[in-house]
Design a protein that fits this description.
InterPro entries: HTH_HxlR (IPR002577), WH-like_DNA-bd_sf (IPR036388), WH_DNA-bd_sf (IPR036390). Keywords: DNA-binding, Transcription, Transcription regulation. This is Helix-turn-helix domain-containing protein. With about 130 residues, this protein is mainly alpha-helical. The protein has a single domain, classed as Orthogonal Bundle (Arc Repressor Mutant, subunit A), CATH 1.10.10.10. It has helices at about 10-25, 30-40, 45-55, 60-70, 100-120, and strands at about 45, 75-80, 85-90. A three-stranded antiparallel sheet has the order 1-3-2. Strand 2 (about 75-80) and strand 3 (about 85-90) form a beta hairpin. The longest helix has 24 residues, at about 100-120.
């Protein structure tokens, strides 16, 4: 991908591909990373998480939280209050994603700026001409 980068052996390419596939398997979907980012503020209850994410349904949020718990990114804490209080918080292991999240955010900002700049500079060539009759 980088200029001047040497070609990798088939074994190294396969190992790299498998590592990326593993990462994508764990972090797949549009909600996992935003959910993790939401919990970076600190522990939250289910409804607080749902409000912070906006359009996510309770069913999907529940599934995503379970997946993140299984992969050791989130801890579910149950408090014996009346009614029962349940909070979700990030594990120390979730901090291993900080560089990934930072790089994705930086790339996303750069990509958006590029698209906006290109749209401003692009002439509108195929705009239909309206007949005034």
């Amino acid at each position: 991908m980088r200029k001047g980068r040497a070609h990798l052996s088939k074994e190294v390419c396969t190992a790299n591909l498998n590592a990326v596939k593993d990462a994508l398997y764990v972090l797949n979907g549009k909600w996992k990373l935003p959910l993790i980012i939401s919990l970076q503020e600190g522990p939250k209850r289910f409804n607080e998480i749902q409000k912070s994410l906006g359009e996510i349904t309770p069913k999907i949020l529940s599934k995503e939280l379970k997946d993140l718990e299984l992969n050791e990114f989130v801890i579910r804490r149950v408090f014996s209050t009346t009614p029962v209080t349940i909070t979700y918080e990030l594990t120390p292991y979730s901090q291993t994603l900080e560089k990934v999240i930072d790089e994705l955010r930086n790339w996303g900002l750069q990509h958006r700026e590029r698209l906006v700049a290109n749209r401003r500079n692009k002439p509108i060539a195929d705009e239909p001409v309206l007949d005034a009759t």
